[in-house]
Amino acid sequence: MIDLPKANRRMLEALVCPLTQATLAYDAERQELISKAAGLAFPVRNGIPVMLVDEARPLE
User: Fold this and answer.
1) CB–CB of 40/57 below 8 Å?
2) Which of these CATH numbers, 1.10.3720.10, 2.60.120.20, 2.20.25.10, 3.30.450.20, describes 6-58?
3) Which end of the chain, C or N, has fewer beta carbons within 10 A?
């Protein structure tokens, strides 16, 4: 698991879902940004959020 510095966590908290514009929750264990509104989890790779719908996985 990658531990992100506080500045990066703040940046992640400022992002919104590209589909719904809803706020995202950061799951540090899975390295994902969760959009409950869209039912998607966007990956964070090497500290960089991948906000592409095609790269997101559906929530179970």
Assistant:
1) yes
2) 2.20.25.10
3) C
Per domain, the residue ranges of the chain are: 6-58
pLDDT digits (tens, 9 = 90+) for 1-60: 455 556 566 777 788 999 999 999 989 899 999 999 999 999 999 888 999 999 999 998
Cα distance between residue 23 and residue 3, in whole Å:
21
Phi–psi pair at 34, nearest 5 degrees: -100, 130
